[in-house]
From TrEMBL:
The keyword Hydrolase does not apply. Pfam families: ABC_tran. This is Putative ABC transporter ATP-binding protein. Keywords: ATP-binding, Nucleotide-binding, Transport. It comes from Parageobacillus caldoxylosilyticus NBRC 107762. InterPro entries: AAA+_ATPase, ABC_transporter-like_ATP-bd, ABC_transpr_CbiO/EcfA_su, Metal_Ion_Import_ABC, P-loop_NTPase.
Amino acid sequence: MENIISMKNVSLIRGNRVILKDINWEVKEKEHWVILGLNGSGKTSLLNIVTGYQYPTKGEVSVLGHPFGQTNLPELRKQIGFVSSSLDRFSQTLKSETVEDIVISGKFASIGLYEKVINEDREQAEQLMASFRIDHLKGKTYDTLSEGEKRKVLIGRALMAKPKLLILDEPSIGLDILAREEILSLTKEIIAHQQCHVLYVTHYIEEIVEEMTHVLLLKEGQIVAAGPKEEVLTDEFLSETFQLALKVHWENNRPWASIHQNIGSTKFAKVESK
């Protein structure tokens, strides 16, 4: 398999609103992408198309070698791990579940355990918990965990089915600096040791760790730039994407941005997509 994700001339229109326009994007094997953009830039809609919960108005989509229109989408989703704050809507169901049962439930893509669990499932869950350094949480219920611990448990759940693609949708949102860095360290380990490709969605470029290889910048439903992170994370492209005059510098193989000009005093030229 060469392309993990392929989108050709993809647009998404709802009523008179253009949500995504002429998206041409490929994710190839051994690439790990970060998706950056302001709220309303189209990030969530893009993910909904990748996971098959939304169909584009026009264009061609293929995920993990499965062309849309010729694919059993529920079966495809079993190959995609997904972690998002949107899972918080299941908090009432999750709150009384034990950590290990939540991790195991990822095998069945369910919230709660309703299938027969075999010893191998429990062993796999315990191995994941140990590798994520949350094995000490065994037996604890979800509602007793810190926000950082909850996020690690949900990532473990996403990996239980051994997905070929793992989507981390703003996994550090609401976390303090220590918990955020723990999630980033965990992401580095996943890229290094797990046999899956990572899509990481964030607002903050400093979360782009060394192991992440490529960046997609979205603005108002269109691609500003896409490609290797060193080529995309420029002052010009980031300033256009975030509508602020930004300066980029690198420390410890991670990019950081500072505001170069006051809000309201900046004018932006059109930046053509690569």
